[in-house]
Amino acid sequence: MIKVGDTLPDARLFEFVEVAGEGCAVGPNGFPVRERTAGKRVVVFGLPGAFTPTCSAKHVPGYVDAAQRLNDAGIDEIWCVSVNDAFVMNAWGRDL
């Protein structure tokens, strides 16, 4: 378990980007977690899967509702990670 103040693993995550940028094609683009979080306070929460009833109805809405309070507390970004690929996560994000 990662706790406040721990160093994040040197992992690579993928996100779907609908607009090409920085020479990358539109589609799932990988990024190094440590690089993207450097100098930031980031809340990272994981879910069993996109489009699952409990995650869609209970988990994500709680973070959406708390987003402003987290921002006011100094959190720069909120990340939702799951076992799904970047295409599914993007579709789920638009759906929510």
Automatic annotation (TrEMBL):
In terms of PROSITE patterns, this protein maps to: THIOREDOXIN_2 (PS51352)
Annotated Gene3D superfamilies:
Glutaredoxin
InterPro entries, alphabetized: PRX5-like, Redoxin, Thioredoxin-like_sf, Thioredoxin_domain
Q: Give one GO molecular function term.
A: thioredoxin peroxidase activity
Entry keyword annotation includes Oxidoreductase: yes
Is Protein biosynthesis set as a keyword in this record? no
* A Pfam family annotated for this UniProt entry: Redoxin
SUPFAM superfamilies for the chain: Thioredoxin-like
Q: Which UniProt keywords apply?
A: Oxidoreductase, Peroxidase
Q: Name one GO cellular component term.
A: cytoplasm
Occurrences of domain Thioredoxin (ranges): 2-96
Protein origin, superkingdom: Bacteria
Which GO terms of type biological process are on file?
Answer: cell redox homeostasis; cellular response to oxidative stress; hydrogen peroxide catabolic process
Positions annotated as active site in the UniProt record:
C55
User: What is the protein name given in its UniProt record?
Assistant: Redoxin domain-containing protein
Q: Which organism is it from?
A: Caballeronia telluris
